[in-house]
Each structure stands twice: as C-alpha cells, then as structure tokens.
Amino acid sequence: MPKFLLGRPKLYGTGLSSKSISWPVLLLSLLTVVTIPAHSQQEVEIAGNRFAVSHPPGYVLEAVNLKLNGPRMLYFHGDEILVGSRDDRIYRLFPPYDQVQTLAHLPLYPHSMLIRDDEIIIADPRCFSSQVLQCPKLATART
C-alpha cells in the first residue's frame, strides 16, 4: 500500500528569490500581451458575403481574381503572381490582380513550380520528375 507523506507547506523568506520575482515578471508579461494588439480586423467581401478576418498588424488582405477554378499554389514573380489550379492550368495575374492570362494547360495537376530565366519548371505529382515550360515572354508579356 502506497504511503502518502503530508507535510507543512514551505514558507519562503522575505528576501528576493527566483520564486518571488517570477510573479511580477509573469504579470508584466501578461499585461504586455493584453495591451499590444496581436491582430488587426478587416472585412472582406466574397461573392456578396462579408467575412471578418484577422491578420497581423500592417498586413492587408486582398481578394484577387476569384474566377479561378481551385487555385492552390501561388508563386510571386516580380509584381506578377503565377497560380496553379485544380483545372490543370497555370495562370498569370497582373496588378491589381484582376487580369488573368492562361500560361499553360497541362496534362497533370501541378504540384509546385519555380521560375529559372525564361522557364517555368513544374513538378509532376505522380512521379519524381518535372516538366519544363518554355515561356520566353515571361517577364514582359501582358495580354
């Protein structure tokens, strides 16, 4: 049968110790966290519905072209955004991100991509290979 030892609680002296300092430090930390806003609030309208969204201070949430079918990966290239989508396409969006250009219609669902010089390298999710899409007007074309 286990034995339980009951003892008198320890009393700490009036001198400064690590235990007596920890409460004021903890209280000050909590007050700092409570007084500094961790997130900003913003309302966004999508398809006639308004949503309240919180984000870090200084950031702005902006809806981009919402007519894309299942956008899933965003790649920032200068001031343009390349977007892979559920409909096996790679799109390019131009500021203010409401103009869309279809760069490629692929025979695969794009897993990820990167840009090197005038090439877009697209990873094939079915295997460990990639496909290179030549795009000579990548940096200049806006159609």
Question: What would you note in describing this structure?
Answer:
There is one protein chain. Helices cover 13% and strands 38% of the residues. With 143 residues, the chain is mainly beta. Among the domains are: 27 residues, no CATH class; 64 residues, Thrombin, subunit H (Beta Barrel), CATH 2.40.10. A hairpin with a 6-residue loop joins strand 8 and strand 9. The longest helix is centred in the N-terminal third of the chain and has 18 residues.
Question: Could you give a short description of this structure?
Answer:
Helix content is 13%, strand content 38%.
Annotation keywords:
single chain, 143 residues, mainly beta, Thrombin, subunit H, four-stranded antiparallel sheet, three-stranded antiparallel sheet, elongated, disordered N terminus
Write the SSE topology:
Elements lengths: L17 H18 L4 E7 L2 E7 L15 E7 L2 E6 L3 E6 L4 E7 L6 E5 L2 E5 L6 E5 L9
Antiparallel strand pairs: 1-2, 3-4, 4-5, 5-6, 7-8, 8-9
Q: How much is the radius of gyration in Å?
A: 27 Å
Helical content, roughly? 10-25%
Number of strands: 9
The fraction of residues assigned to DSSP E strands is 35-45%
SSE order in H/E notation? HEEEEEEEEE
